[in-house]
Amino acid sequence: MDKVLIIDDNTSIISALSLLLSLHDIQTLAAITPQAGLQLLRENPDISLVIQDMNFTADTTSGEEGRALFFALREIQPDIPVILLTAWTQLEMAVELVKAGAADYVGKPWDDNKLIATIKNLLELYDLQQQQRQSQSRAQQAREQLQQQFELQGIVYRSQGVQTLLEMATQVAHSDVPVLITGPNGAGKEKIADIVQANSSVKDGPYIKVNVGALPEELMEAELFGAEAGAYTGAGNKVRQGRFEAADGGTLFLDEIGELSASGQVKLLRVLQTGEFQRLGSSQTRKVRVRVISATNSNLQEMIADGSFRQDLFYRLNVIELKLPALCDRPEDILPLARGFLAKTGKQLSAPAQQCLMRYRWPGNVRELQNVMQRAAVLTQGEIVEETTLALPEDSPLKAPEHSFEPSRDLLEQTLANCNGVIAQAARELGLSRQALYRRLDKYGIPY
């Protein structure tokens, strides 16, 4: 049951409000002095809303007592919604306090239906905010716990999608089963492979990386499996050790695995099944013990359907699949990543620049963001990177519509810091009204 605190020196008003709220299954606590009300709030952290008068001393109409009480309430519970009970003589003070974060003001005498509607809306919003804060706190604790338990290779993220991915990656890392990492170009698949390797049972063994897509088709098999002297044109008279031999006792990361040739797929399947292979131009069977991590931005199921990728190899590679979402599907990660790329330069992003980063759809994903930040750092002479320096396409078809912009917690906190906590200035920087900014600060539990 929701609990509301009523602070008013008029016991008749307390009785009327208590009766009205009880008819709607809302529990009330009451105090006739500000001091008593503050003490009740300290003793009852489950209070979800406060209704307070503006004057408590006879013949006092300035509203200063109510103003002092409001700020004292916010010191105890910064995010608790407060409704001001006011006469028309204190209207100016009530409007000032609403600008400072009060939820609403209600004139005396009030309309029961309107007041109850306001109270229910505020209680519902407060409950949602509390749930969001608890969820954010749990997510933060989960991130910290994961960082303490595993080597995460300095990965920067805030999104739950990446958190879930990392939990699975670290869980399967210690086994020796093949792992397939899927996701768009530039999303960070190699970083996920690094994390799997760093937490594996062969983390102290060799770690060999091969970009299959960058290998000429005629050299692909020789590069992976080795070649005897003279096995192919241009091979020379030296034996060539392949990447599988080099990775024996460790990990082999095969990026862009979808580019592997048909004959290479046959040999890779055999290695995965038996650990055995033959160098190009040799009949001698060699045996290795290698943990294979592969990655692709291709749709291997479609390639299987058109006959360009072996289905049996897919099932061998896809024992564990780690799907890395595109950056536009995890916008919570954009600003932490951007600030991470700027960290060594000592530069910071202006609020408009942060908004610009959040609006853009990042078709090139994390790699594109890194390039943009590196360029902006070089071109920025001062300490603040401005929106114009980012030079992101204004008319890109991938750009999100303006109305979809919603400032993240990171952006709110950074803007407040840049504005030294001045709400009016921060609101202007973000393109919000002060009340809209207050609502968002309350939503995320950000003190102000």
From TrEMBL:
Show where the Sigma-54 factor interaction domain sits. Answer: 155-378
Q: Does the keyword Disulfide bond apply?
A: no
Keywords tagged on the record: ATP-binding, DNA-binding, Nucleotide-binding, Phosphoprotein, Transcription, Transcription regulation
List the transmembrane segments: none
Task: Please give the SUPFAM superfamilies that the UniProt record associates with this protein.
Answer: CheY-like, Homeodomain-like, P-loop containing nucleoside triphosphate hydrolases
Species per Swiss-Prot/TrEMBL record: Microbulbifer agarilyticus
GO terms (molecular function) for this protein are: ATP binding; sequence-specific DNA binding
Biological process (GO), any one = regulation of DNA-templated transcription
Top-rank taxon: Bacteria
Residues in Response regulatory domain copies: 3-123
Which PANTHER family does the entry link to?
TRANSCRIPTIONAL REGULATORY PROTEIN, TWO COMPONENT SIGNAL TRANSDUCTION SYSTEM SIGMA54-DEPENDENT RESPONSE REGULATOR FIS FAMILY
Protein name (Swiss-Prot/TrEMBL):
Sigma-54-dependent Fis family transcriptional regulator
Gene3D superfamilies, per the entry:
1.10.8.60, 3.40.50.2300, Homeodomain-like, P-loop containing nucleotide triphosphate hydrolases
Please state the span of the N-terminal signal peptide per the UniProt entry: none
User: What CDD domains does this protein's entry cite?
Assistant: AAA (cd00009), REC (cd00156)
**According to the UniProt entry, which residues carry 4-aspartylphosphate?**
53
Q: Which InterPro entries match?
A: AAA+_ATPase, AAA_lid_NorR, CheY-like_superfamily, Homeodomain-like_sf, HTH_Fis, P-loop_NTPase, Sig_transdc_resp-reg_receiver, Sigma_54_int
